[in-house]
Amino acid sequence: MCGRYAITLPPEAMRQLFAIRGGIPAFALRFNAAPTMDLPVVRMGDVGREIALLRWGLVPSWAKSLDGGSLLINARSETAAEKPSFRGAFARRRALVPANGFYEWQARGKGPKVPHFVHRRDGAPMVFAALWERWGPPEGGAIETFAILTSEANSDIAAIHHRMPVILPPEQWDLWLSPSTALGALEALLTPAPLGLVSAYPVSLRVNSVANDDPALLAPAEAPPEGEAQAVPAPRRPGQLDLF
DNA sequence: CCAGACGTTGTT
DNA sequence: GTCTGG
DNA sequence: CCAGACGTTGTT
DNA sequence: GTCTGG
User: Most C-beta atoms within 10 A of its C-beta, which of A114, A134, A178, A183?
Assistant: First the structure.
């Protein structure tokens, strides 16, 4: 779950949404944000909220290397506060991840999984609760990564999937980001979205390939009939050679 | 004491 | 880094 | 999350 | 089947 989302808010819109005072880094708009990409997150800096570009896929600070199995894109909200991989980040490095919405794949017994786009009914951006971590020497070469917290799905999308990202409303953003919020108060924020907040519709299978990243990914698509296959358009890079 | 794990997802 | 298992 | 690779030798 | 890359 939550292994893909869209974030296409222009920098200025994001500055206003989060009341960022300082400058913000340049970042690409993404209709198909995927793990290992550098994506904008909001966290507390020295002088209040800041936007930073972090790599999606949290690497614990004690990991021996950046590659391998140490790439944690989600953290279960039910257990993150105690897990060795997340505990430190849960206590001291919480973040918000802005999104237009997220993609969720619905398994359909036979045939391909059907991707859906899950968005707020009111059209507002959706903000995920997240944790971030730093790996490597502080002097330089350190990389910063993040993971998105998940909860049980609510009944708005339970027919599609059984987990969903934790979505925080604006009035909870300060509490989540503040370094002084008590552990119990933090855990109280990590609940499934209230009923009626979100809605979902099927989208094209083109979203399956991260090579596809365009506005058409958000367009509603016909849900394919049960058990019937649908062609997957093959992404093709310019300059690709035919070898045989 | 040292060695080894440390996570999520989904699927069966 | 910190905890668990042997 | 899904898609795509998964290998060696020798030669340029 | 399993791992890596995006």
Answer: A114
Which tens digits make up the pLDDT trace of A31-68?
A: 999 999 999 999 999 889 999 999 999 999 998 888 76
- Domain A4-218 is found in CATH 3.30.950.10: no
In DSSP notation, A12-63 reads HHHHHHHT--S-------EEEE-TTSEEEEEEEETTEEEEEEEEESB--TT-
Q: What was the ipTM of the complex prediction?
A: 0.84
3 state SS of A120: strand
pTM for the structure as a whole: 0.91
The domain ranges of chain A are: 4-218
| Annotated catalytic residue, options A2, A50, A133, A144 | A2
Determine contact, residues A88/A145, Cβ cutoff 8 Å: no
Could you tell me the distance in Å between the CA of residue A159 and the C1' of nucleotide E1? 29
